[in-house]
Design a protein that fits this description.
heterodimer; A: 322 residues; alpha/beta; Rossmann fold; 2 domains; eight-stranded mixed β-sheet; B: 90 residues; mainly alpha
């Protein structure tokens, strides 16, 4: 098995199909890194938020220290979206003249229920974290929501940037025409510089998306790690996701195959059959992802809850990494 | 002498103004209309959600509103939305 080359990345996303153990793996990896002395931030973006449950602590929107070198937080995208919209609303109501207030309120309400608001809020928060917090930590580990959701998140900068680019271009056209028209007016000064606030805001947004994309697509900095099981559906879903990330040039670091049955499963016919099937699927994983480094984690005889069980996974992970 | 010079100068300026109005005002009207159309299109691209056309950047264009209040209002009226149904367009 080739040495996983994502271990030294500074931004890691753990993703995969629902229920394969993303949170466990992300948390264990964050713990392992922090035990090695790397200042690590663990971020949960999954609305289910089981990271706090696994760490047996309450997590909130700002960092909370878990161990000497480990901090954790949870992003609540619903709340983040509401806060952003409230901020814009207050600003709007402050600048809007009396007769426009009702219209503006209505517009704000439309934005509040429009699809994609939470997604955009989550994206903004992730961008903010990777762009600003990066300097304070050696490693940021994202425990993400199930595959579809996360792929959207990672491919969003490209889509958004394309839209903002389009808007910006149209806006420039508006400003060009505005200048032209003013020049034709008697007394209009041709040299009058347009300082259009709209163009300024759009340009600032564009810059942010661009930085985020650069960072996401930088193979030395970022990696996406897929957690999966040696079962049919997780393999299929992971294959699709890996394809998609390749298409968007998001670097895929490797795989963690979780819940591997013990070697001596042969005594019981039921377990022996499961083990045989698992080995078949392991071969399929090898064939489907020949270029991706793999780590394997065993199925434990008990749940991974609490620090002892978590430490067990951390030890297995350390062993697997070698 | 100087008053003749003055009159000539005034006459020339007057001629220029008339010339300008005669030739440029149609262009000016066209340019103004194009500017307005372009601005309307821009607003549509920003706030198409309002008309039921999905817009992935609706979340981000909201923050442009404070800078475009009056334009937005004028556009809103031109789109025939003077009396919008209570509760918005969903």
């Amino acid at each position: 098995m080739s040495e996983p080359h994502w271990l030294d990345r500074r931004i890691l996303f753990f993703g995969g199909k629902g229920g394969v153990g993303k949170t466990t793996c992300a948390t264990a990896f964050a713990l392992l890194a922090s035990e090695a002395g790397r200042r690590t931030l663990l971020v949960s973006t999954d609305p289910a938020h089981s990271t706090g449950d696994i760490l047996e602590t309450e997590l909130g929107p700002s960092e909370r220290r878990i161990t000497e070198h480990l901090w954790a937080l949870e992003i609540d995208s619903e709340k983040a979206a509401a806060e952003y919209i409230d901020r814009v609303r207050i600003h709007l109501l402050r600048v809007a003249p009396e007769h426009l207030r009702a219209e503006m309120e209505r517009q704000v309400e439309i934005a509040r229920v429009s699809p994609g608001a939470e997604e955009a809020a989550l994206f903004d928060r992730v961008a903010e974290l990777v762009l600003t917090v990066r300097d304070q930590y050696d490693l940021v580990v994202f425990d993400t929501a199930p595959t579809g959701h996360t792929l959207r998140l990672l491919t969003l900068p490209e889509l958004l940037q394309a839209w903002i680019d389009g808007l910006l271009e149209r806006r420039k056209r508006v400003n060009e025409l505005s200048t032209m028209w003013r020049q034709m007016t008697v007394g209009g000064s041709p040299d009058e510089e347009t300082t259009d606030p709209v163009e300024k805001i759009l340009t600032a947004r564009r810059r942010k998306f661009f930085q985020m994309r650069e960072l996401l697509l930088s193979p030395g900095e970022t990696a996406f790690v897929f957690v999966l099981l040696a079962e049919r559906l997780p393999i299929l879903e992971t294959a699709k996701a890996v394809d998609m990330l390749h298409r968007f040039k998001v670097p895929v670091g490797g795989l963690v195959v979780n819940r591997i049955l013990p070697q001596d499963s042969g005594d019981h016919p039921f377990l022996a059959a499961r083990k045989e099937q698992e080995q078949r699927y392991m071969k399929e994983i090898e064939a489907t992802f020949p270029d991706l480094p793999r780590l394997e984690l065993p199925l434990l005889p008990h749940d991974v809850v609490g620090s002892d069980a978590l430490q067990e996974i951390v030890d297995h992970l350390r062993h697997a990494i070698g | 002498m100087s008053s003749l010079w003055q009159r000539l100068r005034n006459g020339w300026r007057r001629f220029n103004e008339l010339y300008d109005q005669f030739f440029f005002s149609p262009f000016r009207a066209v340019a103004a209309r194009r500017h307005r159309d372009e601005e309307d299109l821009f607003l549509l691209l920003c706030f198409s959600d309002m008309m039921g056309i999905p817009n992935p950047v609706n979340y981000y264009t909201l923050e442009l509103l404070p800078a475009m209040l009056e334009r937005f209002h004028a556009w809103h009226l031109r789109q025939g939305m003077e009396k919008s149904p209570p509760g918005g367009f969903r």
